[in-house]
Structure formats: structure tokens, C-alpha cells
């Protein structure tokens, strides 16, 4: 299974360029264009590495990083930052304080990005967050590298050998039936259909498919319990609304792939075969077996064994065999591995094909195990071209990327110092700024007081741009700084000391207006939110539009934490949102829900009552489907089914897709059916 990378970049052209580059290297790639979407996707299914543009709409990259580090599931996720805006050591150090693996400034070359990606994926932190592949050290094996498949099914009672040998023999023999794998760890049943594995229970990593989904955060504890009680039937997950059918199929393939790859690292085991007869045309949807084999040997890589393989077979010539054309397009390889394939012409030795790099020997093991290559003491002829037409070879060698630059658009330098508040950054030199010119002397006599009053009157009612004599159209950071310093020099400390009473307070008010406007326009997030809110009917000039924007961001991220059932983080974010916007019924309802569901409050009657009272207040402020669904859950929890049913119906009337309300009604209906059965039983007993 290819390693998974998420690109968070709002420029579609750049995202497409990076996507193409990384897919060409054999990675699985997804892209999002805003911070909230990135957070939601990572919360639902963490990837192996994140490529992050800091200047994202919705949720700034630094804020996204902070929230990722708060969650145990993403606290050590490998991150590569790309930025055309934030340049300089202070930004690099600030990002590193948040666990960024690599920081690339524009312009950078494609090869630099690939090196940064490889370094991030090789770091121990990347392994701890990614769901798909376990990276445990390989266990001792009873046998050396496998021989090519023999073409016959393993006989019953075979001696203890590595899982890979059992697996490959069943694949080559197109075995159908149950393979019982026996080891000191217990008995597992691997089911094959015409040599294709279709299920394994229990798994090497997870007990069953439901536990895998639970660890991915795709099902809750209650849903997993229902799944296990229902004999682990997959269709029950669809009935409960946990996953749509196509996503369920993909997750099943992911789960089976993980388990089979893990088997390559397990100690030797014996098997018992229980053959079954299946119709010849039966073609189950299953995993990519050649890629499983390749990944299995890659994960079980042992340096000593790799060196021995090169010492023993490095001088032998190697060429493609007929099965090469059957399986080559099933492999998803790195560019170095593709180079190896391009050299399998029978005219070079194994050592030459690998450039004497032991790290590439797992590919050789996989090719040999699948019968895709053959060796000789003299040059060999490669396998003839296949009889079928070939539109494309997916593992063709990528063109040289060393000289390719990945361009980012020209943008102005901006500060994210406010976003790094609270993050420890040591040994970071402060940005060098030119000293402002000396302040001009204040006007003499009584004209100073008149000037203070006139200036204050001219600033009242102006938007932040107008405070500095600017507009959105002619704005630049240089002009902003020049106007800011001119105003602050004009009413500096020496001027303030000459005044007293009301005039002194007016100077402080002037400086407060100027500072607020400057802090908003000089910060990337605040400026973007202010620009969006200028002219809005909902937020007039002079109101706290920036705070409202931040409250919405906190609310959105909190809802992601709720989906992850990380109640502590959700409660904290929603409390911040409610502090900014205390009259938002939606924010308050979700805060009440986070408090109610937080396990630490489960035995606190005071906190549970507080959550109920808070929810009732939220409904008086704003009638939302979520609030009614939350209330229905609380009532159902208290055994008041009739009242709960009423609240659930209110929720569905506002939003027919509300999953909590739908699940609640279904649970009530099931309870009613059980009660009816019990009544009938008593009547006829």
C-alpha cells in the first residue's frame, strides 16, 4: 500500500503540480484547499505526511498545526511546510517549535521537496501517526529469502515456515478454501478464492475489521459493540450509517492489506488447509497482491540479510521473466525502484541494477517471489513483450527532477507572530527593522490640545484602512508601517507628558484606535477576516468582526474534535467561541454537548445538570437541529423515551440528515419492538 500524503494548498495550480510530482513517485495523494477541510480529513483518517501551505483560508496553517498537535492521533504527524510568504529564520524556528519536519521557501526545486518528503516519512514521528502500515521491527524468521512459487498448493501438515512462503504458494496454486495459520500466538483463518485472499480473522494487528475502524475513528465504541454483537457483519455498518458502501469496500481492502503486510514480519508458522470448490468465474474484490508482497518485504527489511543477498547474488545477471508483464503494473514503486526495473535487461548484474544499495533488496525479494525475474551466470535475454496491448507502463522511470522548480505565486511578506503566541521558540533572532526617524517636536502652546481633539474626531467611525489614509485597493505593508509610525510619533510619550486630564485620555484613545487598526491589518489572518467582513450586513464597522471570525474558526475545529470524540479539546475550543459570541445558540449547544459527553463529567451530577441547563438556554437563543438532537439524546439517556422522540422529530424537521436524531429514533423503535415482543410473550405464555 502506497504511503499517503495530504496536500493542504489553496492554489489549485500548485496543488495539481505537487500532486502529479508525488504520484509519479508512487505515493497516494489527496488535496484540500482550506484549513478546516484539512483538519477534518486528518481527524477522520490521519495520513503519513502533510504538505502544508501556511496561508490557507478558513484556518491558518499555524492554527491548523496547533490543533493537530493537541490531538494524540496527529500530535507527531510529519509536516513539510511550503511558503512563498513567510521567509526567514524566525518563521522557520517558529514552525519547528510546532514539530515541522522541513520548511521550504520559494522557489524550491522538485528534488528538494522529494527529499523533504522522504525525510519526513523516514522520521519516527511519521510512523506513529499513520494508520495504514505498522512499522515494527521484523521478528526472527526461520527461513532465508523465499524461492519462486512452485505452482502447487502447500500440503497439509507442512513444516513451520514464514508466512510469506505459505501466502505465495497459495497464490501460485490458485488455492480456494481456508488456510489455518498456527503459531505460538494462536490460530488464524485466512480465506482464499482462486489464490486471492479475501478475509483474515483474527488479524495480526487488529482483532477484526470493527476494531480497525474504531482505531481509525470511523466508528464509536457503541457502534463497534453493536458490530461485534452482530457477528461482525459488514452490512450492519451501512445500516447504522457509519460508512457508505463504497467507503466500506475501500476500508475493507485497506484493513486486509495492513494485516497481510504485517504477516511478513511474524515468526514461522504451520498451516492446515481446508479446500473449497468455487465456480471458475468467481472473481472477488480483493487486495493488490503483488503490492502486498512488495510492501511485506519492504517492512520486514533487515540490513544484515540484505547485505548477504548482495554478497551471494550480486555478481549474477538478472532479467525479466514472463510473469513480469503480468504483475509489473500492479506495483507502486519509488523512483529508485523504477530505475531498478529499467535495468532488468539481462545485461547487468544484480549489484549493478541496485547500484549496490542494500535498501533496494526488498524489491528483488518481491520480484523473485512472484517469479518476475530470473538469474544467470552469463547475460540473459529478457522476457518477450506480452501478447496483450499495453497502453501505459505505470512504473516508467520519471524524468530527472533535479532541475525542476516548483513555483509559488509572488506574495507580500506578512507576520504570524500573533499565531505563534504561547509557542516556545528559542534562539530566534528578532526581525531586523530599521529605526524610525526621530519624532517631530509637538506644536507649541494651546494648539496641542486642539490637535488632539481634532485628530480623535477624525478617527471616530473610520474603518481600519481609513485610519491610515489607505483603501483596500492601494494597501501595502510599507504604506501601513509608514502611516503607523507617523501617527505614533506624532502622539508619542513626550507629547503625552505635556497633557493632563481629559486631553491625556484622548491621546490614549487615539493610540488605542491606531494600535487596533494596525494589529488587524498587519496580521494575515486578521486582515483576511476584516476584508471579508467589510461591507457585510451582519458586521458593521467598529464591531469586533475579527473576533467573530475567530469564534467561527474555533467552533468549526471544535466540531471536528467532537467527531473524533476528543471532548476535552472540543470543550476548550467551544468555550473560547462562546466567550467571544455568548449569544450564539449553536456554539452554546455544542459546548453543552461536549460537557455532557466528556467522560470526566460522567459521575458529576452538577456538570451534567449544567450541560442540560446550558442546552435549554441555547435552544431559546437559536433553534437548531443539532441542539434538538442533543436534547433528545439527554432525555433518552434519562429514560424519557417519549420526550426524546419528540426532540428527535424536531431535529429531523429542521435537518432530515441529522445522524444523531436518526440513530436515536431507530434505537427508540427497536426498544418499542422489544417491548411488544415481551408483551406478546407474556400474553401467550
What does this structure look like?
The chain has 685 residues and is an alpha/beta fold. Helix 2 (35-44) runs parallel beside helix 3 (61-70), helix 18 packs across helix 22 (501-521) and helix 24 packs antiparallel against helix 25. The two termini are 57 Å apart. The chain folds into five domains: 4-129, Rossmann fold (3-Layer(aba) Sandwich), CATH 3.40.50; 163-290, no CATH class; 301-376, no CATH class; 447-522, Orthogonal Bundle (Helix Hairpins), CATH 1.10.287; 545-684, Serine Threonine Protein Phosphatase 5, Tetratricopeptide repeat (Alpha Horseshoe). It is flat, with a radius of gyration of 32 Å. It has a five-stranded parallel beta sheet with strand order 2-1-3-4-5, sandwiched between helices. A four-stranded antiparallel beta sheet has the order 9-8-7-10, covered by helices on one side. A three-stranded antiparallel beta sheet has the order 12-11-13. It is 50% helix and 10% strand. The longest helix is centred in the C-terminal third of the chain and has 26 residues, at 659-684.
Amino acid at each position: 500500500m502506497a504511503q499517503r500524503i495530504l496536500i493542504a494548498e489553496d492554489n489549485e495550480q500548485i496543488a495539481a503540480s505537487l500532486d502529479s510530482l508525488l504520484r509519479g513517485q508512487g505515493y497516494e495523494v489527496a488535496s484540500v484547499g482550506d484549513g478546516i477541510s484539512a483538519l477534518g480529513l486528518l481527524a477522520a483518517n490521519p495520513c503519513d505526511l502533510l504538505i502544508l501551505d501556511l496561508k490557507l483560508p478558513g484556518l491558518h496553517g499555524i492554527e491548523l498545526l496547533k490543533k493537530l498537535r493537541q490531538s494524540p492521533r496527529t500530535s507527531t504527524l510529519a509536516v513539510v511546510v511550503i511558503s512563498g510568504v513567510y521567509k526567514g529564520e524566525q518563521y522557520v524556528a517558529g514552525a519547528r517549535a510546532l514539530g515541522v519536519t522541513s520548511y521550504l521557501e520559494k522557489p524550491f526545486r522538485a528534488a528538494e521537496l522529494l527529499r523533504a518528503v522522504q525525510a519526513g516519512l523516514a522520521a519516527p514521528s511519521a510512523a506513529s501517526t499513520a494508520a495504514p502500515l505498522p512499522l515494527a521491527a521484523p521478528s526472527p524468521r526461520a527461513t532465508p529469502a523465499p524461492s519462486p512459487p512452485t505452482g502447487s498448493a502447500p500440503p497439509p501438515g507442512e513444516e513451520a515456515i514464514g508466512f510469506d512462503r505459505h501466502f505465495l504458494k497459495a497464490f501460485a496454486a490458485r488455492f480456494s478454501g481456508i488456510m489455518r495459520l498456527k503459531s505460538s500466538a494462536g490460530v488464524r483463518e485466512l480465506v482464499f478464492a482462486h489464490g486471492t485472499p479475501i478475509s483474515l480473522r483474527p488479524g495480526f494487528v487488529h482483532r477484526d475489521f470493527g476494531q480497525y475502524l474504531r482505531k481509525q475513528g470511523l466508528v464509536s465504541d457503541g457502534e463497534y459493540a453493536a458490530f461485534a454483537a452482530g457477528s461482525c457483519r459488514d452490512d450492519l455498518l451501512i445500516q447504522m450509517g457509519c460508512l457508505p458502501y463504497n467507503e466500506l469496500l475501500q476500508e475493507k481492502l485497506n484493513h486486509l492489506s495492513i494485516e497481510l503486510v504485517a504477516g511478513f514480519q511474524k515468526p514461522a508458522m504451520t498451516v492446515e488447509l481446508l479446500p473449497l470448490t468455487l465456480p471458475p468465474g468467481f472473481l472477488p474484490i480483493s487486495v493488490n497482491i503483488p503490492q502486498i508482497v512488495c510492501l511485506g518485504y519492504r517492512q520486514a527489511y533487515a540490513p544484515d540479510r540484505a547485505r548477504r543477498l548482495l554478497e551471494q547474488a550480486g555478481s549474477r545477471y538478472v532479467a525479466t521473466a514472463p510473469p513480469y508483464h503480468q504483475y509489473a503494473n500492479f506495483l507502486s514503486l519509488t523512483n529508485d525502484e523504477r530505475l531498478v526495473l529499467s535495468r532488468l535487461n539481462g545485461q547487468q548484474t544484480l549489484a549493478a541494477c541496485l547500484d549496490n544499495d542494500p535498501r533496494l533488496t526488498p524489491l528483488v525479494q518481491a520480484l523473485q517471489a512472484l517469479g518476475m525475474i530470473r538469474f544467470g551466470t552469463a547475460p540473459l535475454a529478457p522476457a518477450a513483450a506480452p501478447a496483450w496491448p499495453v497502453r501505459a507502463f505505470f512504473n516508467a522511470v520519471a524524468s530527472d527532477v533535479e532541475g525542476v522548480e516548483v513555483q509559488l505565486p509572488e506574495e507580500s511578506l506578512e507576520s504570524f507572530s500573533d499565531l505563534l503566541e504561547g509557542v516556545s521558540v528559542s534562539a530566534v533572532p528578532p526581525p531586523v527593522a530599521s529605526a524610525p526617524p526621530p519624532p517631530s517636536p509637538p506644536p507649541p502652546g494651546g494648539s496641542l490640545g486642539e490637535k488632539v481633539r481634532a485628530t480623535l474626531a477624525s478617527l471616530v467611525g473610520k474603518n481600519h484602512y481609513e485610519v491610515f489614509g489607505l483603501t483596500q485597493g492601494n494597501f501595502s505593508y510599507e504604506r501601513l508601517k509608514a502611516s503607523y509610525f507617523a501617527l505614533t510619533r506624532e502622539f508619542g510619550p513626550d507629547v503625552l507628558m505635556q497633557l493632563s486630564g481629559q486631553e491625556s485620555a484622548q491621546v490614549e484613545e487615539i493610540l488605542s484606535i491606531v494600535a487596533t487598526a494596525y494589529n488587524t491589518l498587519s496580521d494575515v489572518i486578521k486582515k483576511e477576516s476584516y476584508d471579508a467582513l467589510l461591507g457585510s450586513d451582519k458586521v458593521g464597522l467598529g464591531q469586533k468582526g475579527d473576533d467573530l471570525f475567530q469564534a467561527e474558526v474555533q467552533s468549526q475545529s471544535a466540531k471536528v474534535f467532537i467527531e473524533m470524540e476528543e471532548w476535552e479539546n472540543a470543550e476548550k475550543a467551544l468555550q473560547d467561541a462562546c466567550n467571544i459570541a455568548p449569544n450564539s445558540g449553536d456554539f452554546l449547544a455544542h459546548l453543552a454537548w461536549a460537557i455532557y459527553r466528556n467522560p470526566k463529567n460522567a459521575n458529576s451530577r452538577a456538570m451534567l445538570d449544567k450541560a442540560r441547563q446550558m442546552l435549554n438556554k441555547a435552544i431559546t437563543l437559536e433553534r437548531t437541529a443539532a441542539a434538538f438532537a442533543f436534547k433528545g439524546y439527554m432525555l433518552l439517556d434519562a429514560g424519557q423515551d417519549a420526550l426524546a422522540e419528540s426532540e428527535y422529530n424536531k431535529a429531523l424537521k429542521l435537518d432530515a440528515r441529522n445522524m444523531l436524531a436518526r440513530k436515536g429514533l431507530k434505537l427508540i423503535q427497536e426498544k418499542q419492538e422489544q417491548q411488544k415482543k415481551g408483551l406478546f410473550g407474556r400474553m401467550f405464555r
